[in-house]
Write a structure and sequence with these properties.
Elements (H helix, E strand, L loop, with lengths): L17 H23 L7 H9 L3 H16 L3 H22 L2 H12 L8 H15 L7 H31 L1 E4 L10 H13 L5 E4 L2 H10 L3 H12 L11 H17 L5 H6 L7 H34 L6 H16 L3 H4 L5 H16 L1 E5 L11 E7 L4 E8 L11 E6 L2 E3 L2 E3 L2 E5 L15 H18 L20 H7 L5 H7 L11 H9 L5 H20 L9 H8 L19 H4 L9 H19 L4 H12 L7 H9 L6 H6 L6
Parallel strand pairs: 5-9
Antiparallel strand pairs: 1-2, 3-4, 4-5, 6-9, 7-8
Helix pairs in contact: 1-2, 1-3, 1-4, 4-7, 5-6, 7-11, 9-14, 13-21, 16-17, 16-19, 17-18, 18-24, 25-26
């Protein structure tokens, strides 16, 4: 029996073998096609119920199976899973096209849409109908037959290319290691980092210490290692991922993806891929994104240049360095920060034991949104590191299943993300609750120490948990509008707003306790964390804007087919945001997974866009109290539970009472002259 084709509630991970995936996906596509066919063959006139709603409920089995498969392809992959992904992705892209390019189905959807003014629909129903109609119209339903065939070809190629891009980045990440045997090369590194590197070496049956490009190894090395040449070696290795003359090179893949996206947009009647994507975002047009980004750039750049000059002078004074390089930035920033604020990240780590931070974020969710988390051990997982929780509300109603996967391993891509194994929806009068997961890459426990997080890792956990709350508190009728199914430039609001609690005394006192003594983090540290929050904010803003602008340059140009050099194009895109000298053997685009593998193409700006919303939203909490129940309830009812049932700005205004202004962000970042 194939466990993926059986009825299941939580995913039956331990029963699934790799050979189950292809037959299960094939069969689920067949089932979904039969469900679609039933809608088309219905003799009755198209109605909201027999067409719009019926279509929203199709493909459930397929969605559940593919969510399990593709989540594992990110969190616990291997060569065989990657090979299967390359095979099934074109099937899925063809199936999606079978739906959006089906003339009979589109005519039924269009018939309901054209008659919408005569239907007595709720706001959510109107949104579902509009989203569904646009899903067809924006994806080729109005094309002629020859163009439909071309669209199918483009989509099949794109699905394979983006998978290959991600596989190459993972292969390059795993291929590099720096093996050190002389202890003096470890000068400057904290004991905990040395211990972790020793354990990596031991796992590879080597003497000494091994450092890798996994973030918990790579970031501390660049931040603390005194040996400049070794920092350079690490930085260059990270910067040339998929930009080397080998089989994992992503340059041609990028040019192919960009050209195919442009072709696709043109085919659908849009000027560029960015115009196509942004039509359905809060920003609406590339012009708005460029204006937003350039306005912020104008305010941040003078501060960034000042900060960079100070850092250069500091490095020169300290070590006689004439030219600050990329592998120097984190190292001297950390030293300068320590000097200015007397704040050492290593002093903070003992107060951020992973288990305490998890308990803390749960307690904060309880105080704000009445949620309770109980760890349970009966839910199947795909790896022994994965923790599982039952989530209930104050009346003991079941809210969600929550999975958490915290540590790096070879089959897991870098970074952190939230995902879902089962969406929330109301079907046959039953509110089906979601299964939500967060995946991170945090410092592992060692033989002598538990997992102690850097402050940056603490904010990352809160960020991903904010996304998880958006998924867990979803309360909509239709799954395609549920949870994080919102405009991409609105999706980061719940995640980014939750990060703010990491800086507040009232919140830190809940979970920031020394792992040995239980002592609450001293107030002087809390004050220093707050004081230092805007340290080098000009440079940080410039960096974030540079990624967003690079993304927009790749996707908003009229003729991407004229681009011949990925590196040259990238350098031009970075011209206005550049601080450090260029490194010839490095390229950012070739490992820019957010836009070439994930869903952020023409959308990376949304991190900064959402920062405007989150700073404005948190200002409201600060006015009333960070655990104010009235504000929290308004946020839950108007943002977290509503998903994509209304336009984001309407939801935001209902929560806040007004439109957001960038002032709160600029003030928080220290970029606003008061």
């Amino acid at each position: 029996m194939n466990p993926l084709l059986e009825e299941f509630n939580t995913a039956p991970f331990s029963k699934i073998l790799n050979e189950h995936y292809k037959p299960a996906i094939k069969k689920a596509i067949k089932i979904a096609k039969a469900e679609i066919n039933e809608i088309i063959k219905n003799d009755e006139n198209p109605t909201f119920d027999n067409t719009t709603v019926a279509l929203d409920f199709t493909g459930e089995k397929l969605n559940r199976i593919t969510s399990i498969f593709f989540n594992l392809n990110s969190a616990e992959t291997n060569d065989e899973i990657q090979k299967i992904a390359q095979e099934v992705s074109p099937w899925l892209s063809e199936f999606r096209n079978d739906i959006t390019l089906n003339e009979e189905l589109f005519q039924r959807v269009k018939s309901v849409y054209d008659n919408r003014k005569n239907l007595d629909l709720t706001t959510e129903q109107k949104m579902l109908l509009e989203k569904q109609y646009k899903g067809f119209a924006r994806n080729g339903a109005n094309l002629n037959e020859a163009d439909k065939i071309l669209l199918r070809e483009i989509d099949a190629k794109l699905s394979k290319l983006s998978l290959k891009f991600g596989e190459n980045v993972l292969a390059e990440t795993n291929a590099f290691e720096m093996h050190l045997t002389d202890e003096k090369d470890l000068s400057g590194l904290p004991e905990s980092i040395k211990e972790a590197a020793k354990e990596v070496a031991k796992s590879k049956e080597k003497e000494g210490w091994v450092f890798t490009l996994d973030y918990p190894s790579y970031i501390p090395f660049l931040t603390y290692a005194d040996n400049r040449e070794l920092r350079k070696k690490m930085a260059i290795a990270a910067g040339k991922k998929a930009f080397q003359n080998n089989k994992f090179n992503n340059e041609k893949i990028i040019l192919d993806i960009v050209n195919l996206r442009h072709q696709r947009a043109n085919l659908l009647g849009y000027k560029t891929h960015a115009h196509f994507v942004l039509e359905e975002r809060m920003a609406e047009t590339p012009e708005t994104v460029f204006k937003f980004s350039n306005d912020l750039l104008e305010k941040a750049k003078p501060a960034a240049l000042r900060e960079f000059k100070n850092l250069e002078n500091y490095a020169k004074k300290l070590d006689g360095i004439d030219q600050l390089q990329k592998w120097d930035g984190a190292y001297y920033s950390e030293k300068l920060k320590k000097e200015i604020f007397d704040l050492d990240q290593e002093l903070l780590k003992p107060y951020f034991k992973l288990e305490n931070v998890i308990d803390g974020v749960f307690e904060i969710a309880n105080r704000l949104f009445d949620l309770n988390f109980e760890e349970i051990f009966t839910i199947d997982t795909y790896h022994k590191d994965v923790k599982t929780y039952n989530v209930t509300d104050s009346k003991n109603n079941f809210i969600a299943v929550f999975y958490a996967d915290f540590h790096p391993r070879p089959g897991k891509r870098n970074g952190a993300w939230m995902t879902s194994y089962k969406p929330q929806q109301i079907k046959n009068g039953i509110n089906e609750r979601p299964h939500v997961s967060i995946v991170c890459n945090f410092t592992k426990p060692t033989e002598t120490k538990p997992s102690l997080l850097t402050f940056n890792e603490v904010t990352t956990l809160f960020h991903e948990f904010g996304h998880a709350l958006h998924g867990m508190l979803a309360n909509t009728t239709y799954n395609s509008l549920s949870g994080t199914s919102v405009s991409w430039d609105f999706v980061e609001l719940p995640s980014q707003v939750l990060e703010n609690w990491c800086y507040e005394k009232e919140a830190l006192e809940i979970f920031a306790k020394h792992y040995k003594t239980g002592e609450v983090i001293p107030m002087k540290y809390v004050e220093k964390i707050k004081e230092s929050a805007s340290f080098h904010e000009g440079m940080q803003t410039l960096r974030q804007l540079s990624f967003g602008l690079l993304d927009m340059q790749w996707h908003s140009g009229d003729s991407p087919q004229t681009i011949t050099s990925v590196k040259e194009f990238e350098n031009q895109a970075f011209a206005e945001t550049k601080l450090y000298p260029d490194v010839a053997e490095n390229c950012m685009s070739t490992a820019f997974s957010h836009i070439f593998q994930g869903g952020y193409s023409s959308g990376y700006y949304s991190y900064k866009w959402a920062e405007v919303l989150d700073a404005d939203a948190f200002e409201y909490f600060l006015e009333k109290g960070i655990f104010n129940k009235e504000v929290a309830t308004k946020f839950k009812e108007n943002v977290l539970s509503k998903g994509g049932t209304e336009k984001p700005m309407e939801l935001y205004k209902r929560f806040r009472g007004k439109k957001p202004k960038p002032d709160a962000l600029l003030k928080r970042a220290g970029l606003l002259k008061t």
